[in-house]
Design the sequence.
């Protein structure tokens, strides 16, 4: 029966190991979108700017992974993430924008002031598409693969450290 | 200056903890060494310094010294004084300081008044207490300094979370901590006894009042916390199986088991190893709770310091203290000689059963609390809640309650169950009749509430059975304590079962002047008006509730907006009657001018906390009873010793005629 005396210590050691392991893991507080792995909803958006074409679901089915950036000219964090979008564009990424509840002249002014990384920008005046793809705020960025399937969602503005993450996500989406 | 004084006192207290540890350790080899004599004074002075340091923290909060980081982050100059003071422990650093202060005071108290144990065991106990305190001083001083100054004082503080700006914060954490940390005394006693291998019934007698004291505070803290959550959060619930609630329940379960096994050890000198184990486990559960709250490893309403670095620090402390104590247990306990034997049908047998069941419940709560931690290691996220805890807990709680009814009627050592035929029959008849009547009254009642109601009624009556056939005036206080505490459990259980079986809930939109019905009350919304408090404004609903032709009662629930920090809270309003509580919460105003009201009628809900108070009262009576009995016994022992000496002296005189002659 003497071995039973060691049972509490062993159980405790197991707990310490488990807790230590969990403490060393980066804590993931994100609630992941249930839209991951689902195709984009069918939509057709009119152009939001005077220079670029609008956006439709078909644009995402050309076999090339893209970023879908949900933004607005009235959104301050969108200004903060503009350099990161520019960096992504320079890395050869195609970025499709959807401007939420925006006016054409405001969008034009924004693109002039903060640069234009987009290949096309659609106008979503009533947040309809935004809600359908499971986005609740601006800015948000989605990775869409070549078949129009949502592969990744980034909530909030893009920071410098997110650029390589997104490039990695795009690479995976292209495989 | 006060912050620096507080910090200096904390460093000195930590130094004294080292002295206490070294002194106690030296005393094990050479009890007459000069350092060995310093253990007790060091413990007392350490208690004083920790208290002084805590006093300084209260002071900087009282004067809202905004150059102190903790005050700036958690207080505000416009806050009422009571919340400025209680806000001192409404944060990680301050509550940790409260924790070590209680720990140091407990150590000082045993150093000051506990003289019954062999000095060697006592020194080992104080050394253990000092050693544990040292770790927590290190934690405070190295990673959670409450007295840290800001380089530049801020013009105004951030304010305290409005949910904490409540009188509940003034009571719940201090009482809970006295219980939590008071169990450190049991832990240190257990370690001390393992070091010196002196586990006797005298040891249990010495440990018992300390465990009882901590247990009373713990019960009070949990009861207060439950009531606070009930009225402050505005959800109408009183227990959520939140990890941190579980973290307070687990030491309580262990301490309850410990109380009972210490009784067996004190009365019959049995269950030696088991009592030591529980002494270690009880405080280990307290420390585990601290770890869960402060590491952010589990998601919880109480998690106020999500910081993996602090988590690692506490985990290291846990490893040293719990791991060390369990290692000592494994190595030493087999050399603690086995205690007395007893028959299965006996008071001891029932208490062992109770211990096994309480430990099983403890295991179940522990497993449920840590299960998400385990599954997350495999990337599976789960949330364990009432669907697990309620039924699985009940499997072991109901046998415990049945044993509680019968156990106190059994005799020590060996008994015959035949002797108890009458009381057991009464108990069973009560349970069955209550169940039958309940089912007749409400056929769709759930199985757990039904069992709860039936057992509560049976146990309520059975808890007084140990008094039958005895002269009420001559029943020892400790027995009264037991009776009252067991009755309190029945009362509390009745409240829980009734609340979950019969609660009526209503969510309505009412225009001012409109009326609704609930639980036999006619409820009228008389109006909604803005009101202002010291640091908030609110929309206050005036609701009158009237039963039949009775006098109308006014309830004033509020929807409060605090401005520092900016946050909305709902302040519920309660109408307490003997048979239940009407609970009202006011929500938002709809576009058509009607107000959302959320109303509950909760029959007998107050019994939950009344039962908790009865349990505490029972504990207090038991402490007084034990202390009085102990004082009497010691007095009698002394008298006996004196008489024996006198007799010996007389006999010596009688045998020597010369001496006798001289005396004449």
Sequence:
């Amino acid at each position: 029966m003497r071995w039973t005396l060691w049972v509490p210590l062993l159980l405790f050691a197991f707990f310490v190991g488990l807790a230590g392991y969990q403490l060393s893991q980066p804590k993931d507080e994100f609630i992941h979108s249930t839209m991951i792995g689902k195709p984009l909803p069918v939509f057709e958006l009119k152009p939001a700017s005077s220079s670029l074409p609008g956006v439709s679901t078909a644009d995402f089915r050309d076999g090339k992974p893209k970023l879908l950036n949900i933004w607005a000219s009235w959104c301050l964090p969108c200004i903060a993430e503009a350099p990161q979008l520019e960096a992504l564009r320079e890395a050869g990424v195609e970025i499709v924008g959807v401007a939420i509840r925006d006016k054409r002249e405001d969008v034009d002014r924004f693109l002039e002031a903060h640069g234009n990384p987009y290949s096309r920008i659609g106008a979503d005046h009533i947040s309809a598409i935004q809600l359908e793809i499971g986005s609740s705020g601006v800015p948000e960025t989605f990775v869409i693969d070549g078949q129009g399937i949502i592969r990744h969602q980034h909530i909030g503005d893009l920071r410098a450290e997110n650029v390589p993450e997104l490039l990695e996500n795009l690479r995976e989406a292209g495989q | 200056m006060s912050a620096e004084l507080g910090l200096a006192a904390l460093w000195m207290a930590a130094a004294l903890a080292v002295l206490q540890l070294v002194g106690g350790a030296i005393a094990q080899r050479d009890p007459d060494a000069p350092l060995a004599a310093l253990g007790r004074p060091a413990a007392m002075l350490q208690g004083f310094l920790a208290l002084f340091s805590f006093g300084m923290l209260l002071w900087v909060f009282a004067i809202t010294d905004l150059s102190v980081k903790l005050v700036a982050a958690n207080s505000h100059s416009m806050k009422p004084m009571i919340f400025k003071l209680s806000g001192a422990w409404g944060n990680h650093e301050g509550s940790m300081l409260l924790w070590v202060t209680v720990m140091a005071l407990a150590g000082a108290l045993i150093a000051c008044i506990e003289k019954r144990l062999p000095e060697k065991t006592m020194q080992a106990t104080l050394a253990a207490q000092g050693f544990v305190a040292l770790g927590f001083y290190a934690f405070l001083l190295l990673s959670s300094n409450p007295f840290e100054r800001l380089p530049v004082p801020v013009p105004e503080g951030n304010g305290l979370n409005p949910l904490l700006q409540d009188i509940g914060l003034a009571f719940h954490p201090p009482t809970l901590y006295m219980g939590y940390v008071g169990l450190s005394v049991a832990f240190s006693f257990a370690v001390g006894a393992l070091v010196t291998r002196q586990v006797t019934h005298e040891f249990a007698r010495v440990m018992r009042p300390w465990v009882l004291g901590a247990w009373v505070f713990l019960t009070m803290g949990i009861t207060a916390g439950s009531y606070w959550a009930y009225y402050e959060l505005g959800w109408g619930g009183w227990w959520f199986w939140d990890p941190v609630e579980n973290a307070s329940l687990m030491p309580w379960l262990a301490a309850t088991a410990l109380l009972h096994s210490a009784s067996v050890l004190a009365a019959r000198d049995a269950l030696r190893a088991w009592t030591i184990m529980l002494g270690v486990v009880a405080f280990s559960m307290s420390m585990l709770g601290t770890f869960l709250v402060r590491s952010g490893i589990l998601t919880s309403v109480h998690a106020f310091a999500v910081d993996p670095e602090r988590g690692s620090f506490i985990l290291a402390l846990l490893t040293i203290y719990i791991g060390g104590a369990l290692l000592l247990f494994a190595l030493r306990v087999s050399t603690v000689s086995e205690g007395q034997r007893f028959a299965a049908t006996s008071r001891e047998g029932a208490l062992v059963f109770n211990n096994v069941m309480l430990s099983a419940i403890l295991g179940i709560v522990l497993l449920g609390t840590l299960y998400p931690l385990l599954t997350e290691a495999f990337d599976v996220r789960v949330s364990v809640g009432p669907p697990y805890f309620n039924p699985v807990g009940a499997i072991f709680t109901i046998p415990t309650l049945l044993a509680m009814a019968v156990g106190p009627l059994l005799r020590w050592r060996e008994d015959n169950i035949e002797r108890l035929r009458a009381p057991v029959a009464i108990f069973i008849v009560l349970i069955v009749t209550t169940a039958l009547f309940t089912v007749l009254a409400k056929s769709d009642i759930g199985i757990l509430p039904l069992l709860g109601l039936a057992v509560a009624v049976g146990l309520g009556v059975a808890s007084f059975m140990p008094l039958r056939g005895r002269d009420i005036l001559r029943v020892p206080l400790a027995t009264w304590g037991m009776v009252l505490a067991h009755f309190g459990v029945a009362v509390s259980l009745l409240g829980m079962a009734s609340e979950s079986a019969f609660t009526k809930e209503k969510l309505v939109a009412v225009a001012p002047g409109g009326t609704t019905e609930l639980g036999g009350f006619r409820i009228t919304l008389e109006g909604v008006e803005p009101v202002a408090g010291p640091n908030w404004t609110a929309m206050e609903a005036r609701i009158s509730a009237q039963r039949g032709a009775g006098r109308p009662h006014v309830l004033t629930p509020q929807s409060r907006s605090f401005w520092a920090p900016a946050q909305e809270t709902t302040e519920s309003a309660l109408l307490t009657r003997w048979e239940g509580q009407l609970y009202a919460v006011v929500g938002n105003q709809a576009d058509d001018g009607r107000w959302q009201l959320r109303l509950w009628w909760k029959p007998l809900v107050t019994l939950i906390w009344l039962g908790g108070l009865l349990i505490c009262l029972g504990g207090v009576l038991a402490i007084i009873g034990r202390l009085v009995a102990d004082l009497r016994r010691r007095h009698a022992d002394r008298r006996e010793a004196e008489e024996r000496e006198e007799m010996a002296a007389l006999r010596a005189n009688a045998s020597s005629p010369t001496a006798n002659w001289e005396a004449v």
